[in-house]
Amino acid sequence: MLYRKYRPQKFSEIVGQEHVVKTLQGALESGRVGHAYLFTGSRGTGKTSLARIFAKALNCDYRRNQQPVIGNQLKADSRRPEAVLTEPCDNCHFCLAASQGNSLDLIEIDAASRTGVDDIRELNDSAMVAAPGGGYKIFLIDEVHMLSKSAFNALLKTLEEPPAHVIFILATTEPHKILPTVLSRVQRFDFKRLNHGQISEKLKMMAGKEGIKINDEAIKTIAMSADGALRDAEVALTKIHASVDPNKEVSAEDVNEILSLVSYKYYPEFLGRLLNNDRVGSMEVIQKIHMSGADMENFTGNLVEYLRNVLMAKINPAVLASVSGMNDEETKNISTLGQSVDSQRLIKMIVSFSNARNEIKHSPVPQLPLELAVIELTS
Ligand SMILES: [Zn+2]
To answer: Which of 73, 167, 330, 357 has minimal CB crowding within 10 Å?
Structure first.
């Protein structure tokens, strides 16, 4: 998998999340490292990657050789260049073991599969024992919201009074499920969804290094389909790379076909007919999209996003400039559409299509919820 090969190994390789990187590097530099961190944010935004990099930097041999004292007040050594303190060397015994996932000092637990109180008791016992490498013992608990209540309470005991050599990094996509008693003991970082530009840049780098021939339009199409999750985009690129003739340049059409996406040209066409109250014409577009094998849920979701952009541009035209990854033609389509329809009608459409999108999953006929929305909106 390409995403594994190009998984970031240093802070400088992380895409986005500058606010988190800056704070963690600040802690490394000052030596004021906390005992518990909570990384929250939607899937594929780099929580686990960043947790591993932070762990590496904390236990990196280069850093520790200069700093024998373990505790909250590691003192930065003035003789060492800053870079050594704020980046893992990625070459020492600890860094290599952690990168390969077989370090005894970095213990990764997937709470989705180990939710019970016994698992956490085991963790608590392990936390009491010093790290075999003599540095920090770092527990990375992924999907921490999946822990049972009793497991959470058991974890809380160690979180309340963690041994000096222990650091917890908890990660979750659902922070609202974390008990307030836990929240009050952690430093929380909210990871942001990545924008199309950030995702495109990483994909371009990967394609360049792998010698994948792909044009900008195709890169952009992948980036937009990923909904802010870099990992999804990287997995998509792998899939596309495996499916197309390596001597041919990958186009946006190839991407649409392989990922079952709807070409962007359909959005203005569909909305144009809908706004003209052309019920039959709108239905024809839906049928055409369905016959192309595209995923109706994805189409309807993007339709809502498209309409939202139209509404936002109507309220404040300046926002269009901040929507990255859009070309001039799309920007023009959106502002033209905004001028031809009033806000109330747009809102009605957004609500109607949002509901349709939620219903598609359970509908025996995937295009039916969308068709019903069209009938409602054109009557
Ligand atoms: Zn190292």
So the answer is: 73
- So what CATH class is 196-258? mainly alpha
CA 83 – ligand 1 centroid, Å: 12
For residues 70 and 252, is the Cβ–Cβ distance under 8 A? no
Contacts of 305 (CB under 8 A, 6+ apart): none
Interval between CA 104 and ligand 1 midpoint (Å): 15
Residue 111 Cα to ligand 1 middle (Å)? 27
Alpha carbon of 351 to ligand 1 centroid (Å): 52
**CA 9 / ligand 1 centre spacing (Å):** 11
**Overall pTM surpassing 0.90 (yes/no):** no
In the chain, where are the structural domains located?
Answer: 2-190, 196-258, 266-377
CATH code for the domain defined by 266-377:
1.20.272.10
CATH code of the region 2-190 = 3.40.50.300
Distance CA 254, CA 218 (A): 8
- Residue 76 CA to ligand 1 center (angstroms) comes to 16
* Torsion sign (Cα): 173, 179, 180, 181: negative
**H-helix or E-strand spanning residue 56:** helix 47-59
pLDDT by residue (tens digit) across 292-347?
888 888 889 989 988 998 998 888 877 776 665 566 777 888 888 888 889 999 99
Contact between residue 99 and residue 93 where contact means Cβ atoms under 8 Å apart? no
Q: How far apart are CA 50 and CA 21, in angstroms?
A: 8
Q: For 144-175, how does the pLDDT look when each residue is reduced to its tens digit (9 = 90+)?
A: 999 988 998 999 989 999 999 999 999 999 99
What's the gap in Å between 204 CA and the centre of ligand 1?
28
For residue 79, pLDDT over 90 is answered with no
User: How close is the Cα of 93 to the center of ligand 1, in Å?
Assistant: 7
